[in-house]
């Protein structure tokens, strides 16, 4: 119970940005998505697109009435928009998706089953124009990292990214090497109750965890040097409860939670 309360309070903001080496500025096109809370059990999602220096008027995402949080957004090479977020109910935290392709829309749950507890999605588009998502989820008592990709009109079965252990794994961050290899890094607890950054690579259909871990300070320094300048939300998102930005100025695209951003600033 304590872990679930911690996870619920942790993932309030997600920013999807580019962490390419030596990034110094943003591309001319950005996408933003955010949640606005209207009551304790009702929030709506909005998105906007920035071309050159102008943000479009906010577009409401028409989904069921409920509490929708931690949205992320991506635009693929065919100009389709992909949204992933968590719907919080009294008993579940449901990982949901929506993609918009012109007049075509498809939405649903990423995973099937009952009493799902998912948190903090991250998203990217790979070199083959395939969307990937990663998230933290509780299946029994502890949080693990899961990942899936879009395959033949549906999400692939969720794969566990981290090694089996008896400690929580949280706040995943998706990325991609210059060669196109997908990786996930996350915060993993150690037996002494401290955290380190672990990384796994998708190879031959499965996730292989690197033996190297990044101390928190080392990881902060690595990320600070690669954050693009000028990253900011549109004014119309000023009342947001949480939100995400997306740019694909290069192919390394990441989703970053407020917990990660807090780490970078402190």
Shape: globular
C-alpha end-to-end distance: 28 Å
Top-tier CATH class:
Mainly Beta
Largest sheet: 5 strands, antiparallel
Note the run of SSEs as H and E: HEEEEEEEEEEEEEEEEEEHEEH
The CATH topology is what? Answer: Methylamine Dehydrogenase, Chain H
Cα gyration radius (Å): 17 Å
List how many beta strands DSSP finds: 20
Low-pLDDT segments: 1-28
- Mean pLDDT across all residues, rounded? 80
Helical region count? 3
CATH architecture: 7 Propeller
Overall structural class, as computed from helix and strand content, comes to mainly beta
Strand content: over 45%
Count of structural domains: 1
Helix content: under 10%
Can you walk me through this structure?
Mean pLDDT is 80; it is low at 1-28. 39% of the residues are buried. The chain has helices spanning 2-10, 216-224, 258-265; strands spanning 14-18, 29-39, 42-51, 54-55, 59-61, 67-75, 81-88, 93-101, 104-109, 117-125, 131-138, 143-151, 154-155, 159-160, 169-176, 182-189, 195-203, 206-209, 242-246, 253-257. The chain has 266 residues and is mostly beta strands. It has one domain (2-265): Methylamine Dehydrogenase, Chain H (7 Propeller). The chain is globular. It has three helices and 20 strands. The longest helix is centred in the N-terminal third of the chain and has 9 residues, at 2-10. The strands form five sheets. Strands 2, 3, 4, 5 and 19 form a five-stranded antiparallel β-sheet that branches. Strands 10, 11, 12, 13 and 14 form a five-stranded antiparallel β-sheet that branches.
């Amino acid at each position: 119970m304590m872990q679930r309360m911690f996870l619920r309070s942790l993932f309030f903001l997600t920013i999807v940005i580019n962490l390419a080496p030596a990034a110094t500025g943003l591309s001319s096109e950005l996408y933003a998505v955010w949640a606005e809370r209207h009551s304790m059990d009702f929030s709506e999602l909005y998105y906007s697109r920035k071309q050159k220096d102008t943000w479009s008027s906010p577009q409401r995402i028409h989904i069921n009435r409920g509490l929708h949080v931690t949205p992320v957004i991506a635009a693929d090479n065919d100009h389709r928009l992909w949204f992933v977020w968590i719907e919080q109910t009294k008993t579940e935290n449901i990982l949901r998706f929506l993609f918009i392709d012109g007049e075509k829309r498809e939405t649903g749950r990423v995973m099937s089953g009952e009493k799902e507890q998912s948190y903090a999605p991250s998203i990217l588009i790979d070199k083959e124009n395939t969307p990937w998502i990663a998230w933290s989820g509780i299946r029994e008592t502890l949080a693990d990292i899961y990942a899936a990709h879009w395959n033949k009109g549906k999400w692939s079965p969720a794969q566990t990214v981290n090694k089996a252990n008896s400690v929580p794994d949280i706040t995943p961050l998706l990325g991609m090497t210059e060669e196109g290899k997908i990786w996930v890094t996350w915060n993993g607890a150690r037996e002494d109750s401290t955290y380190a950054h672990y990384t796994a690579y998708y190879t031959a259909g499965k996730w292989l965890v690197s033996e190297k871990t990044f101390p928190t300070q080392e990881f902060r320094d690595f990320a600070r040097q690669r954050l693009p300048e000028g990253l900011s939300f549109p004014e119309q998102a000023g009342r947001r409860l949480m939100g995400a930005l997306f740019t694909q100025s290069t192919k390394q695209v990441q989703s970053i939670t407020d917990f990660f951003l807090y780490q970078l600033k402190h």
